[in-house]
Amino acid sequence: MRCSPLSCEEGEVKVEEPGSCCPVCRKQFPGEPEAECKRYVEVRNITKGGCRLDNVEVSFCRGRCLSWTDVIMEEPHLRSECECCSYKLDLVKPVRFLSLQCDSGESEQVFLPVITSCECTSCHGGDLSRR
Prior knowledge:
Layout: E1 12-15, E2 24-27, E3 36-48, E4 51-64, E5 67-71, E6 78-89, E7 95-102, E8 107-113, E9 115-122
Antiparallel strand pairs: 1-2, 3-4, 4-7, 5-6, 6-9, 7-8
Subcellular location: Secreted
Keywords: Disulfide bond, Secreted
Protein name: CTCK domain-containing protein
């Protein structure tokens, strides 16, 4: 039996299914988790040494992003993409200054980054000890 020419759409690949003699188009990665990177806000107690400030709203990013490695024809024959759930700071006021109250009666100034949004971006740096 002769198979008719098959042209798959973007995001699909030709696969040969068991029991079928002609290839069919299927999603390249069915069931692959979606990237999900979100901003969260939590009320925390901030401490530094013997100083503290209670009930501070802190924003942070959490989620998962996709990564992959593919084969290419040019050196080094592999291409990888790694994305991490990262932050964007407020452009106008990127940090908040807080005044922590210390046991000694004095106060200590600290700053808190102001995260306005989160998104999957190309990974940079990080903990290389696990490589």
